[in-house]
Amino acid sequence: MQKIRKAVLPVAGWGTRFLPATKAMPKEMFPIIDKPVIQFIVEELLGAGIENIIFVTGRHKRPIEHHFDINSDLERHLEEAGKEAILENIREVSHMINPIYIRQKQQLGLGHAVLTSEPVVGQEPFIVSLGDIILEKGRKALSDMISIYNRFGKSVIALFEVHPSETNKYGIVDVKEVEEGVYKVEDLVEKPDSGEAPSNLAIVGRYIFTPLIFEKLKETKPGKGGEIQLTDAMRMLLEDEVIYAYKIEGKVHDTGNPIDYLKTVIDFALEREDLREDVLEYLQEVISRYTQLIDTP
Ligand code: G1P
After folding, report:
1. Of the candidates 149, 114, 124, which has an alpha carbon nearest to the alpha carbon of residue 212?
2. Dist. CA 115–CA 49, nearest whole Å
3. Is 28 close to ligand 1, i.e. is its CB under 6 Å away?
4. Strands, E assignment, 116-228
5. Atom 13 (ligand 1): residue with closest C-alpha?
6. Over the stretch 204-256, which tens digit does the pLDDT of each residue have?
7. Nearest protein Cα to ligand 1, atom 5
8. From 1.10.390.10, 3.90.550.10, 3.40.30.10, 2.60.120.430, which CATH number describes the 6-255 domain?
9. Is 66 exposed, middle or buried (0-12, 13-18, 19+ CB in 10 A)?
């Protein structure tokens, strides 16, 4: 069986949910305090032993390339200023990966973005990690998914439970448990309304695919939102191959829409010892200020 060596990170989307902030700035570069979202995704992959990282980028995504590149001027400045700790951190980021960038010339959907990576991925299994979800236990999730792939040699997707009112934000699956924590996918639907959802198990933006997905993507017609959807191609893949699913543990931090992004920043701030106390104090003050406002007729 072929080993999983490569990961595809589709980062070419418009980020319409964050316009105008995303007009000139990729949403993948939004900071979670002082680290961009995309760096968390890359660190998760490195932690799971995946070093070949392929970004599917677009016209306005250059800051991502700069982030993982060497910035000699900045390094010189930090050296002269004697800022050793941050200099070390900057150098670490610059040497973290040897990325490959491939341009998606038209933003025709997530499925189309994955298909764009075919010339670089070739005929081997690969990971797809979406750039807007940070998993608390991401390394474990990816390592577990790779083990499932190594046992069965078939595609594997990560799932988490969502509130029934949120099924229209995710790809939703119908599954059958085959052993503890491992499922076989029976059906998939992209962003169904709660009445039409087959379950409350959502795809959480981490996938392992066999290369057959590329053939299916070539046949996939525009679906939800007029876009070529990865979920629709997976549904076709299901006709020829089993797809396994794995329910992840730990918290899911979605950074793909304003309210969840805000919650993610607060969660991470509360995790940091240097910020926790100040943030808590501020949150308490805000709560009491607004409670008073609401209570005052
Ligand atoms: C994409 C996928 C969807 C998945 C979601 C979260 O949607 O199409 O199936 O559940 O990511 O990983 P998006 O959030 O890009 O609209």
Report:
1. 124
2. 24
3. no
4. 126-129, 133-135, 155-161, 171-179, 182-190, 201-209
5. 170
6. 999 999 999 999 999 999 998 899 999 999 999 999 999 999 999 899 999 99
7. 170
8. 3.90.550.10
9. exposed
